Automatic annotation (TrEMBL):
Protein name from the UniProt record: tRNA(Ile)-lysidine synthase
Organism: Hallella multisaccharivorax DSM 17128
Gene that this polypeptide is encoded by: tilS
Family affiliation: Belongs to the tRNA(Ile)-lysidine synthase family.
Principal place of residence: cytoplasm
InterPro entries according to UniProt: Lysidine-tRNA-synth_C (IPR012796), Rossmann-like_a/b/a_fold (IPR014729), TilS/TtcA_N (IPR011063), tRNA_Ile_lys_synt (IPR012094), tRNA_Ile_lys_synt_N (IPR012795)
Length: 478
């Protein structure tokens, strides 16, 4: 059976499935000889080890090829004694092989309930979050996952059933950040033959034999049926994914150019000119590229696209949706003034507080300082400042204490140079101020609640300096 072992290892090398990083046995893994980092002998990889055939084969193959590895096992406590059996098997295997094993325990059901997601999604999130942190803590060069070509076929079919685009039809990537899939080019059968050749046992997850789960329905029912129709069904599906890779490269380049062209400056987030997004050959594709990067789901992306397309012929209210907002766990998307804005949710939700100013003086705020002074105009002629962070006001009639606070719905003022009053939010929208800046806009009011200053923008016309002004109040923020 030695030939099967050598054949499997040679196949991995031929596929260039393994990272080009230093190994102990340069002869067994000649691809490492091309690595500029060959002298960095301390580099190592984490191997996600479940105890099943795939991950055990991956661990044994990496060791045989001379890579320095450590194993990482997740106990999700979903299968009672079976879960503990798997952990014990991994522990015994790593002891036999003389490698370090990292173990994490998760209350997966509680996490799924808290996040309102399926058990499978919860386990996935917990697993990858822990792997990422473990790699960071240990300094690992990457995390090797034991997905193989049969998994790839299942993933492509699942994505197809969900109505995927080109990216989904490509399946899993061989490399995705710190995560690597060295076995993606080999089949489950080759893996089993390799384990048999080296006399290595493994554990079997009973859920793999349970066809209630979508993936297992494909594995046990659908794919065997496809192979009855076309014996080379799996190979053809993989070939299709490879062929689409070139098409995706072309599309990605086109989308990247269009996205850069539509990008506008935005403090604290991202902004895209809708006129240019909608002018692209496929607006839907560009919206997907922008919004899926920020964790928006299919329903939200379609709603945003519809909001824009409904108004592209001139119906401004429909298109802009009056600042309609879409929110997910991480981000906020807003349409305003022909621009799509995307902000981190934590930035949008950052608390804003009010601050009372009882008299003239210097005050320390949470994000800066404000100085309030009053001068007699007769002794010191003061010109209105052109600095937007300084406001010069007619002090007569202004009553302390002042308050600096966020804008509230219904706040009205008389903009500088105008006669009638206007809602502060309408004024900011008309000035095309970005949503986050509007959301975080501060105003200064007096004891009567009258607005004196939109901080950093404009003063209220009622408090402008005039020839009759006797005393000048100066407000400045730094």
């Amino acid at each position: 059976m030695k030939g099967k072992e050598v054949s499997f290892l040679n196949r991995l090398k031929q596929l260039h499935a393994l990272p080009l990083l230093p190994v102990k046995d340069r002869e067994l893994s000649p691809i490492a000889g091309n690595c500029e980092e060959a002298s960095a002998g301390e580099s190592f990889f984490l191997v996600a080890l479940s105890g099943g055939a795939d991950s055990v084969a991956l661990l044994r193959a990496l060791i045989a090829l001379g890579y320095h590895v450590e194993a990482a096992h997740c106990n999700f406590h979903l299968r009672g004694k079976e879960s503990d059996r798997d952990e014990m098997f991994c522990n015994n295997l790593c002891e036999e092989l003389g490698i370090r094993l990292h173990v994490a325990h998760f209350d997966t059901i509680a996490f799924a309930t808290l996040r309102k997601v399926s058990i499978e999604m919860a386990a996935r999130e917990l697993r990858y979050r822990w792997f990422t942190q473990l790699a960071k803590d240990t300094g690992a060069a990457g995390v090797c996952i034991a997905h193989h070509s049969d998994d790839q076929v299942e993933t492509i079919l699942l994505n197809l059933l969900r109505g995927t685009g080109i990216k989904g039809l490509l399946g899993m990537q061989r490399r995705n950040g710190i995560f690597l899939r060295p076995l993606l080019g080999v089949s489950r059968q080759e893996i089993l033959e390799y384990l048999h050749a080296i006399g290595q046992n493994y554990v079997t997850d009973s859920t793999n034999l349970d066809d209630d789960v979508q993936r297992n329905k494909l594995r046990l029912d659908v794919i065997p049926l496809l192979e009855k129709i076309t014996p080379a069904a799996k190979q053809n599906i993989l070939r299709m994914a490879d062929n689409l890779g070139d098409a995706e490269n072309v599309v990605n380049h086109s989308v990247e150019v269009a996205r850069k062209g539509a990008t506008r400056h935005c403090n604290g987030g991202e902004a895209y000119a809708l006129k240019e997004v909608l002018a692209y050959t496929s607006p839907r594709l560009l919206f997907w590229d922008i919004l899926s990067d920020h964790s928006f789901n299919r329903t939200q992306i379609e709603e945003i696209l519809l909001s824009c397309e409904n108004g592209k012929d001139g119906d401004d209210d429909k298109m802009r949706s009056n600042g309609k907002m879409w929110i997910n766990e991480k981000n906020v998307a807003i349409i305003s003034n022909d621009v799509l804005y995307v902000y981190p949710r934590e930035e949008w939700n950052a608390p804003l507080s009010s601050f009372r100013i009882p008299e003239v003086g210097l005050y320390i705020l949470s994000n800066g300082k404000i100085r309030v002074s009053i001068d007699e105009k007769s002794t010191s002629f003061i010109r209105p400042s052109k600095n937007v962070n300084i406001a010069t006001l007619d002090s007569d009639g202004i009553v302390f204490p002042l308050t600096i606070r966020p804008v509230l719905a219904g706040d009205r003022f008389t903009p500088f140079g105008m006669k009638g009053s206007k809602l502060v939010n309408d004024y900011l929208k008309d000035k095309k101020i970005a949503p986050l800046e509007r959301h975080r806009q501060l105003i200064v009011t007096d004891a009567h609640g009258d607005i004196l200053w939109l901080v950093g923008r404009t003063i209220d016309e009622r408090w402008r300096m005039r020839a009759t002004t006797n005393r000048v109040m100066t407000l400045s923020v730094v």
